[in-house]
Every structure is written in C-alpha cells, then in structure tokens.
Amino acid sequence: MAVISDPLNGLVIDGLDSITASGAPGTIVEPYSGWDTTETLSVFVGPVGYGQDPGRAVGVFDITDESGCVHRMAAVWRLEGGLITTEDRYHDVATYPDSHSTTPEGWWTGLARPSPSDEVATGVLRTPAGREVQVYNGTPLLERVLQDAMARYNAAGIPEPRFDAVTFEPSRECIGRSGRLIQSEGLRNLFLCLFEIDLCRASGECQEPTLAVRGILLHELAHAWALDHIDDDLQSQFLELVGLEEWHPDDDLPWAEQGVEYSADVMAWGLLDKQTRMARIGSPSCQDLIAAFRLLTGVEPLQECNA
C-alpha cells in the first residue's frame, strides 16, 4: 500500500493503492527537472546512501497555496513495479516561513539549509604517498579502488597525482562525463563519476572493479598528474610522436584528437595490470603505446607487449 508523508504540514496518508505525481498540493506553477537546477534541488533531498544509485524519482516544484503564497517543495518518490508507493515531501525552509503568516513549529524550526549533495564530506583519504585528500560522497569501497589506482603510480616509479579533494557521484559536474578535474584558487577537485554499483559487472560483493572502471580511474588521475609533469615542450614532443596537432580541448576537435585526452589514455594503458585495446584513441600498436608512455613519464609501462 502507498503512503504520503509531509511532517512539516502534519500530513500522513496511507492505505492508497498507488500515488500519481499529480498528487502534489496546491498548484504546480513551475516544475523543475534535470541537473541544471542542482543548486536549488540538492538543498532539499539527497540519495539514500552516497556512492549508491538512489533508485528514486525526485520532483521539485514551486507551489502556490490558496492565499497566493509561493514556496518550493520537493517530492521524493519510491517506485515498485512502475508505481509510486511512497511519497515524502520536503519544504524549502527558507521560503516556507516567509510566505505563511502562521507557521507550525517543530524539529524544523531554525533548521539550516544543508549543502548541495556534492558537498557532503564523508572523510579524509590518505594517499600512498601520505597526502591527505578530502572525500565527498565517498564509501569505503570507492576509496579503496581509488587508493589502488593511486598505488599504480608508485608501482611504476613515478610521482602520484596531486589533488586536494575527490568527489564521487552524485555530482552536477558529472553530466555526460566519466570524470573532471577543476582547479580553482590553487586547489584541485577531482570528480570521479562513479557510484558503487558501477564498479563491478554483477551484483553482490565487489572484490575487484572491472578493467573499464580501472581505466577510467587511471585516465582521470592522469589529468591531475599532467598538470605537474607535462610542460609545453613535452606537449609538443608528444603531439609530434603520436601525430596530433592540438593539446587542449576544442569544441570542434574530436575527443581522440585532443592531446590532453590521448595522453591520459596512454597513461592509463601503461599503468593498467592487463592489456586492453585502446579503441578510443584509434587502437595504436603496443609498441607505439610504450614509446608514448616512455616519453611522458621517463619510465617503462607496467605491462609488456604480447609476442
């Protein structure tokens, strides 16, 4: 049976067969959808557990009541068999009191607005080289696989990437990306667009992430590493070696023709523990990949070419 809960208004409705999205109170003046409104969306609701796909539907609305007051409300719907079985309503505490002459008091009185979902600190990670990194939306498993990826740099005998914070999903920086590195005011925030459920193919306990996931981690870490170890001269040498013309991204330039992305894939290949076909950058030969990795790092890759 379905249940609607709204503690701020003292509303609990149960015994329903199911719930439809049209059940929101008042008049829906402006529906909000998509991550383009994350800065307002995320102050109301977040995932059940960070690092896990929440598996929920979320709607955020501007609600007009009978007196003409407008406030924002979020509804979180949990679905079973394609039907909404639970609806929890959350009100924006910044607009709700201002638009009502009488406001019920309770646990929400004086409640501070929480930070967006990608600003939820879950711990501090110590890298293999001893650096402390702030973790957002992390879980022990996500942190472990990141530690393992960082350790590949140490195994190859090259300095590990330097960054100050790492953010896992959910994040508004992850739309259409596997990861992103943002440097601002001297600080680097590495976004790794992964939930825990993305790490392994099958459900159940995840002992080791897939080769594809390990490649993504090493690729994104390579962008941080490049900021400290690939200067303009080395960029030019690399572009000449692999037959490319541009290093930095360009809207009109295909991904595989951007030196910064090509080099990150080369770094990931050289640090992986298993060979993989580098289809994203045109499947260069193993010998060409070794030469490119050696140029970037000055050391040999951790894998050898098959005979």
Question: How would you portray this structure in words?
Answer:
The protein has 307 residues and is an alpha/beta fold. It has three domains: 2-114, no CATH class; 116-222; 230-307, no CATH class. It has six helices and eleven strands. It has helices at 38-41, 140-156, 211-229, 232-242, 259-271, 286-297, and strands spanning 2-6, 11-16, 27-32, 57-64, 70-80, 83-91, 121-126, 132-136, 165-168, 179-184, 187-192. A six-stranded mixed beta sheet has the order 2-1-6-5-4-3, with no helix packed on it. Helix 2 (140-156) packs across helix 3, helix 4 runs antiparallel to helix 6 (286-297) and helix 5 (259-271) packs across helix 6. It is elongated, with a radius of gyration of 24 Å. It starts with a strand and ends in a 10-residue tail after the last helix.
**Overall spatial form:** elongated
Task: Name the average pLDDT.
Answer: 77
Kindly, what is the distance between the CA atoms of the first and last residues, rounded to a whole number of angstroms?
A: 63 Å
Q: What is the helix fraction of residues, given as a range?
A: 10-25%
Could you tell me the radius of gyration in angstroms?
A: 24 Å
Number of helices: 6
